[in-house]
Structure formats: C-alpha cells, structure tokens
Amino acid sequence: MAAIAEAGGSIALEGARKARRNLTKARIRWVIAALVLIFGAVAGRLVQLGLVEQDNTIEGQTRDLITASRPAILDRNGLELAVDIRVPSLFAEPRRIIDVEEAAQAIHSVLPEINIDWLRQRLTGDKGFVWIKRELTPAIQEKIMQLGIPGLDFVTESKRFYPGGTESSHILGAVNIDNQGIAGMEKDMDDEGVALLQSIGLARGNELEPVNLSIDLRVQHVMHEVLTDALTRYKAIAAAGVMMDIKTGEVLGLVSLPDFDPNNPVTALEKDRFNRVTSGIYELGSTFKTVTMAAALDSGKVRLTDSFDARFGVRFGRFTIDDFHGKHRILTVPEIYKYSSNIGTIHVMQTLGKDDFRAFLTKVGFDKPVPFELPERRQPTVPPKFSEIVAATASFGHGLSISPLHMARAIAGFVNNGNMPKPTLYKRSVEDAAKDYIKVISPETSERIRYLMRLNALEGSGTRMNKFAAGYRAGGKTGTAEKVVKGRYDSSKTLAVFASAFPLDNPRYAMVVLVDEPHNENEQSGHTAGWNAGEATGRIVQRVAPMLGISPDFNQVLDQELVPPEIR
Amino acid sequence: MIRTLNVILVITSICALVGVYALKYSVGETASEKVAIQRHIERQEADLSLLKADWAFLNQPANVGPIVTRHVAELNLQTLAQEQFGRFDSLPMRMKAPDGAALDSLFEALDSGVDPIQQLIVESE
C-alpha cells in the first residue's frame, strides 16, 4: 500500500476482490470468444458440407439407371425366355490414379483387346468416373483385383441374357448396354412402365415380378426348327410363321427367318432381318380367297350350292385374268375354293359387289396395322376405293398387301364363330379376350368356312399338308403369289403362303406360314405353296398338336359332320 | 464429502468414456461386418443369377433339340406318329372274372411240357 499512499491526492483503491472480479470477466470474455470461434467453425464446416454436391451420376446417367434390372420374361409355362445376370463392369477414377502409364499397361495385360493409347488418354485427367470396360466375367474381375491398382473399381451391372439364342428373337427384341429395350417386347415393356421404375430407382437389385408371355416355347421351337428346315429344303430366301389361339388371340409362336441373336443385338441390323410376320406386308395371293368367300357367304348373296361359270377368263380392257389350275367349266362354290379358281372367285366377289367387299376388308381390320404389342408394325396397303379391276385382283389376293399377322387374325375370326380376337403376346384368359372380340361373320358362315378349309385339305391344294398332319383335322388355303420385280409380276419368283386352322371340328389354333421364293424340293415336287408352305404347316401341326393336348382322330364322321346341311 | 463425490464422478466419466469408445468401435465393426455380408450376398446373388441363367439355357428346347438330333441313330429315335396314340376307350374292358377253364388248360399244357405262348411266337415268326 505504500505506493498508493505515496501518489497522494485522489486515491483509487483497487480492492483485491475487485481485481479478481475483473480477471474473471476477462476470462469469461475469452471463453465466450473461444466458444464463438469453435461453434462458428463447426457451423461453417456444416454449411460447407451442405454445399458439397454429391455426384451420383455415371457419365450423365444416374447410378440407379445403370444398375437397374429388368423383369425376367417367361413363356406361358414358366420357362425362361430372358433373364438378368449380374456382371461386373470396370470403371476408373482418374483423379485417384497415381501412375497412368503403369495402370494402362496393367489393364492392357488383362484386357488386350483395349487400345493402350485410348486407355492412357482415358485414365489421364481429373475426372471422378470413367468406364473402362463394361460387362466382364467374374474371372477377369478377379485378375484385375489382383493387379492392385488404386483408382480402379467395379460396379455390378445387370446384363440381359437370352438362353434360347435366336429362337425367339423377333418376339423378344433386344436391349442396349444400358439395359433399355430397343426392339420387340423389351421395348414394349419399357413403354409400359419398366423404364419409369428404373429411372426412379425402384428396379434395382430386388427382383421384379417376372412377365408371362403367351408364347409356348415348345411350339416356338418346333416352328423355328421346321421353318429353318424349310429354308434349306426349298432353297428359299426367307420363311416366317405365326400361330394364334383363336379364342384368346394369344400368339403361341412367331418365327421370322432369317433372324438374329438378341445376345448380340448388332446382328439385328443386318439386311433382311426384319420381322416378316408383323412388319412385312405381302400380296398373300389365293389365301385371300378365304376372305372373299367369308364376305360373300356372310352377305347371303352367295350360297355354297351356287355355281359360277369359270369357262372363260375375265376380261378387263387389255387384261384377261385366267386360272392357274384351270378347269374351264362351271364350278360350284366349294369347287372354286378347292381348285383355287381366280375366275370363279371374281364372279363370287362381283355377286357380292365390290363396295361391300371393300367394306368387309375394313371390318376384318385390313386398313390399319394389327393392334399388337410389338413395336415393329407396318401400315398395310389396301386401296381406299376399289375399281372393277382392282376389286377383281383383290378377290384373289393381288394388288393389296397385308401382313401375315392380319391374315392369321382374320382366319382366327372366321373359324371362331365369327369372333375376331385381338392378338396379344401376353397371357390372357378367354373371358378377357371376349371383351375385345370383333364380330366379322355369323356363326353359320363360320361353319361353312371351316368346311371349305377342311375340304381343301382333303381334296384340294392342302393335301400335301394333310399328309403330314393326318388325324389332326387341319385345313387351310394355299396361296402362291408372284412377286413384283421391277414393276412386273415375275412368275419365277413367288411367295408361298398357307393360312390354316386346326382342329377344324373344334377349332383352337390358326396359323399362317409363308416361304419366300421357294424352289422345288426335288424333280417330282412342285413349286406351288402346297408343296412348301403347306408341307411346313403339316409338319408343324404334326409335332405341335400333341403338345397342345389335341389327340389324333381318324374317325371320318368328324369330317362328315363339318359338311353343311345344304350340300350333305 | 465433495471429494468422494468427485472421485465417483471421475470414475464414472472414465467408465463412460471407455464404454462409449468400446461402443463406437463395436458399431464400426458391426457396420463393416454388415458391408462384408452385403458384398457376400451381392456376390452370391450374382452367382445365383448366373446359375439360373445356366439352368434356363440347359433347359431350353433350343439346347435340348440338337442333343436329341445327335443321338437319333444310336437311340433309334423317331417322331411320334399319329397312329401311335391310343385312348382309354379304345382299350378292351377288363373281364368280369378270370376265365378259370382257360387258365386250367394253360397250366395243364405247361405241366405236360408244351408252352402255347412260345408256340404262338414261333408261329408268328
């Protein structure tokens, strides 16, 4: 206290207590400052973390989309047509790669097919993600893991696998490397919502409900085998076939050759690999007479007991239309069908009237593409109005082009009591299908058409078919259409078609088979449709019918019962 | 009093510290175990998908068909002909009672050393 006392005058006494209080205050201030700083730092870091943008995309696509799986596709009995397999894909993070040259060399040693300069360029830079090679095998994955290069890793991707190979190619279509459908049912399924599920990440890892198609793999296999055989047997350039359940419209088999391997979708782009059943349109020739007969008989203006003069060709100005297998006499309606008389069919059509005939074609859906799941479809070319001569040629299937699926659907309608079903590739019950029925002819006319088709198999151009399919009560109409080459019909290039249904006493399946530019099998055989498309149909029916639960029956009463009362 | 309280508090906090760290590490361990199991499951799922695909491939008519064609000659395989199908109603009805007399004569013939069935076979040849 001496110092204070010495200063004299006003004395400020700093009491011990006060000094201590000041010190405490100062300490509190420091603590507050420190706390503010610490919490400020924490808050700042939080804001910073919040601002960091997580890059979940892989080269512009979401990770979900890349690892997305697709539902398995099964046939109607549960056999797999398409499945997903999980495969590793190699990617690199260039910003984490230390020695680009070493990494490039090492990868090249395991995957020699990759260009090393491309690799070097790919691995250099500051990117966070680049693909090196997608869809590898587990063995290669193991090898790359053993290289121990930092900055390389794997993503498990789903890859589509088609165990049947080429067999169902035109039905299934294909997917691209990102597992998106690019053709066939795969594309249709994407349009139906699988793509949406994938994009929102729901189709990831966990299994999607498998999809049942209407295809019967056994039928598909038989059709594929028989038609492949037909290609070599008749030295044809193409062959196609479709079989449909007439009650439900379910397509049981659909083959178009040449086809492609969906496991290697590039092959689909080769020439002539299109789906002939849905996206090919053809002049289907005499098979069209079934349509003409159905139209005429249903109108009531023509009856089975009527006869028409087929002695002379029909003249239209400079043109005369004559018969191929000419009988040149007066023919009854069943005979016109049986002998495939063009002249007779024209007279039948003329009795019906060309406008009514044209209206009937609209009714059976020949104006629009068939409503069907496959995206590969084509607009048929049917003239909007028929002149006399166009109507005449149309009555035996020339001058208008439709797809084989159109014809199969029409035949299905004709034999299914006149109820034309909507074709589908999904499994469907008869009740559901009945809602989409289009009434095209009366049940009575349907009976008469069934009789005509069976008659043609017993006595007409379908006998070659019936030789193979004996006992299965199959019947149908042949069509041998000359192809148009440089604007003219060329008799050396034909398209052979067989439009059939079986078993006709209780019809269940309709089938259209076509063979493009067939040749004689041997010296004794002919080149018309009965010899190739007909025989192929017979072979298919012979093998497929027992699988579908149709037992052979040689009882002649069945055929006799098909004969309508008026000509019995 | 306060001293003992402090000691207790210090001990509890040390225990808590050890406990929390132990928990942290065990959680970390469980998490890595979980990741490992997940990886394992993923791998097995991948393997399973491959096996399923293999099975589907081996089961395909497209795969079985060629095998059958390869063995046609050795096994004498033929396409089923329509005539080879039968029906239950084309089978003859079972006899109400066994034909006793016929059986007796058969056994008598066998006893006397004549085999009528063998004879039929010989005759048909």
Q: Which key features would you list for this structure?
A:
heterodimer, A: 568 residues, alpha+beta, Penicillin-binding protein 2a (Domain 2), Beta-lactamase, 2 domains, five-stranded mixed beta sheet, five-stranded antiparallel beta sheet, disordered N terminus, B: 125 residues, 5 helices, 74% helix, elongated
Q: What is the CATH fold-level name of the largest domain in chain A?
A: Beta-lactamase
What is the CATH architecture assignment of the largest domain in chain A? 3-Layer(aba) Sandwich
Structural class of chain B: mainly alpha
On the 0 to 100 scale, the average pLDDT of chain A is 86
Helix content of chain B: over 70%
Helical residues, percent of chain A: 25-40%
Main sheet overview of chain A: 5 strands, mixed
Query: Can you say what the CATH homologous superfamily of the largest domain in chain A is?
Result: DD-peptidase/beta-lactamase superfamily
Task: Give an overview of the whole structure.
The complex is a heterodimer of chains A (568) and B (125). Chain A has 20 helices and 20 strands. Chain A is of the alpha+beta class and 568 residues long. In chain A, helix 9 (217-233) packs antiparallel against helix 19 (533-547) and helix 10 crosses helix 17 (443-459). The longest helix of chain A has 36 residues, at 16-51. Chain B has a domain at 7-79. Helix content of chain B is 74%, strand content 0%. Chain B has five helices and no strands. The mean pLDDT of chain B is 87. The A-B interface holds A 79-80, 83-88, 138, 156, 161, 163-167, 205, 217-218, 220-221, 224-225, 470-472, 542-543, 546, 551-552, 554 and B 42, 45-47, 49-50, 52-53, 56-57, 59-63, 65, 79-80, 82-83, 85, 87.
